[in-house]
Amino acid sequence: MSAHTQKPVLIIGGAGLVGSQTARTLRRLQPGLPLTLGGRDLARAGAVARELGGADAVRVDLERPDLGLPDGRAFSAVAMFVKDDTLHSVKYAQAKGVPHVGISTAMFELAPEVALFIHQPARAPILLASQWLAGAATLSVLHFAKEFRALESIDISAVLDEEDLGGPAAYADFERQTQAAPNAQILEDGKWRWVHGEAAARTFKSVDGTEVRGQAYSLLDGMSLAAATGARSIRFDLSLGQSSSRRRGEPFSTEIILELTGELRDGTKGRVRHELVHPSGQAPVTAVGVAVALERLLGLSGGAPVAPGLYLPEVLVEPAYLVRRLEEFGTRFRRV
Questions:
Q1: What is the pTM of this model?
Q2: Which of 28, 30, 120, 239 has the most CB atoms around it within 10 Å of its CB?
Q3: Which CATH class is domain 4-132+284-318?
């Protein structure tokens, strides 16, 4: 491990549901990587740190440019699990010259973060990882797209169980992203469109065959996949309700359905459906996405430490590697 990565990763929101799950995932993937869990509740963060071992806790104040941290503290990366309306966490990472990963920014609210990078492009790597479950859907699409010579359309449907919204920070993200912009952006026949009402609704089959109604959702998956694949139509729909497992009387799960249409390698036209299910919900899937991204940024997998720049997950992480890690941590894949 390099001297750079001997410094701890600062996980802001590290005592929350997804932040703590990410810390545990990193501990399994990189046992020697030190971690610092940051949050408003020092006692809660400290309890998670003691459970992990090789970790400590700090109180973080996002209202302050220095995050309320002592001058002498040094970190190898900053991972954000809450919406930072001040963007002080990005500025802090830039000032320290370390990678920053954020997962709470919708497509329609990217501009302030991108502007910070444009003004200081050589300061730090900034990873925009607000795709569904930190890139799980986008990178899985790219992994399965290898079956195609050319993609025409990509439909991503996600079922988020109403009992699996997560903690207060996750609920606030969902409320903001679904209410701040009344319309959603999709790619339709090569043109970006804002849709609302019936045009924004779509009925799809969940993994148990039940028809559910979804709503178009403006996450980063659409722009990532448009740039990566050249598909002419891409949309992401979210259904908040009851997952298939809970309909069977079991605990909630999370579901992602990927439907790809295009020219297959043998020259025929085909439509292929892949289903991803995690029986413990969205948190462990998101945790793997962020942990794998941090590994890559720090040069602990897939190559040397990443240079300063503005990145999306699919530019840095090999899709097959993420799919393998998702399977190792309990995600089930099925081709229909």
A1: 0.96
A2: 239
A3: alpha beta
